[in-house]
Amino acid sequence: MRGALLASLKKSKKLKKTKKVEDRSAPMLKGGLEKKDIENYLKDVQDTYVEEWEPLLTSQGLTFRTEYVPMEKKEAQAMVSAYEAWTKLPEAKEKFEGFFKELTNSKIFSNMILKLQAKIDTCLKKFKCDKVFVKGSSRSAKDSVIEVAEMRSDFTKRVIAARDKDKKTSLNDAVIALLGAGKDAMSGTDAKYFLKLFIRSERIYQDMTLALDRPEFKSGWAIREWSDIDIGMEFRGFVHERRFCALCQYDYLVKIDALQDKKTREKIVSIIQDFYKKSVAPALHGGKSKFKSYIADFAIDTKGKCWIIELNPFQESTDGAMFSWAREKKTLTSEPFEFRYQAKTQSAAVALSKAWRELVTSTLQTSNQ
User: Is pLDDT at 183 greater than 60 in this prediction?
Assistant: First the structure.
């Protein structure tokens, strides 16, 4: 997890202390990182910034159309300071709206909102869609959607809709509902909404802090075309030295009914392998391309089209999903190709961070009464 890397940097750079990482989207990096390891990691992160690979794939219709709003260094510094100030507030959640209003009264944040909204409006017209997804150059602010009241309301509705004949919702279905509500909460049309997510996101805070530590600052917002993707239809692929070595279910905390059918699984794997071999690899690996080892997230949308969602560093900082970096490095770096899916219902809530786990538990208790 990038929190571990941030901690390593703080020991040598004396950066401000951040709170304990709750985001579980990736495992912790090994402790005691050498300077060269940190440098290689940071380079890999920047090499997989969306600005680096998206143009190569969008030109071929392989990923979602994207427009960019470059971020100035002083804006990133303001974002980092805002996150640190918010986390130190007593009763921070309850006081966020007032805190955010004060931020937007400042010139730097009001200007950020204006230029971000202008680009969002342009993208809505250009992409001919009714909403977009805004992320950072490296990662999204998906960890902060738990703070959004509309997401919680949507989650509750989904849990109720998933009740069985006994008017009970299973833990597995509740987590699917949570993943769906959380995903949809990442879309919108309002710059203020996205800025609220960014300011409360520990992931964005980590990424901004690391970007600010680089000799040359490089970061920004990516405004991406929105596409509806069902939970269970995203997959994490491992490419090592341009060999597609492994693939697995991205939302591995849940059992997906469609993936229990062998023919369906084989068809999905075949579609993704063919998509990678015939389209993605030629687009990414041409000429003197730097893309050799990376982790690619694939999706099949509700219309059956295959996409690349994003590229991630081929590093232990990137979640191995259903594969273990510690025990299965050989599987992730060599052939034959292996595919994994979740065949059993898991105690998914246990793997969630405390706040998400409490939300699932409390909502289920109310719904299943």
Answer: yes
Calpha distance 364→369 (Å, rounded): 8
Token pair 């259903």 is at which residue? 322
What confidence score (pLDDT) does residue 25 get? 42
> Which pair of structure tokens corresponds to residue 344?
């059993």
Q: Which residue, 276, 291, 273, 284, is CA-closest to 338?
A: 273
- pLDDT level of residue 287 (50, 70, 90 thresholds): confident
Give the count of beta carbons closer than 10 Å to the beta carbon of residue 90.
Answer: 6
Closest by Cα among 228, 57, 204, 42 to 137: 204
The position carrying tokens 């979740």 is: 342
In the block, residue with structure tokens 């929105």: 226
Q: What is the side-by-side strand order in the sheet with 66-70?
A: 66-70, 220-225, 132-136, 187-188
More confident residue, 161 or 214: 161
* Strand boundaries in 95-156, DSSP class E: 132-136
DSSP category for residue 143: G
Q: Measure the CA–CA gap between 363 and 159, rounded to whole angstroms.
A: 8
Rg (CA), the chain: 20
Contacts of residue 112, Cβ cutoff 8 Å, sequence gap at least 6:
75, 191, 195
Other residues' Cβ atoms within 10 Å of the Cβ of residue 162 = 17
Q: Is the dihedral of CA 297, 301, 304, 307 positive or negative?
A: negative
Cα(363)–Cα(357) distance, integer angstroms: 10
CA angle, 15 then 18 then 19, to 5°: 160
33 three-state secondary structure: coil
Whole-structure pTM value: 0.88
12-24: per-residue pLDDT in tens?
Answer: 444 444 444 344 4
Long-range contacts from 327-331, C-beta under 8 angstroms, 24+ separation: 331/245, 331/246
Token pair, residue 175, equals 């987590």
**97 with 257: CB under 8 angstroms?**
no
Pairing of strands 243-249, 294-300: unpaired
Residue 295, φ and ψ in degrees, nearest 5: -115, 120
What does the DSSP 8-state code read for residue 299? E
Q: What is the pLDDT of residues 236-283, one digit of tens each?
A: 999 999 999 999 999 999 999 999 999 999 999 999 999 999 999 999
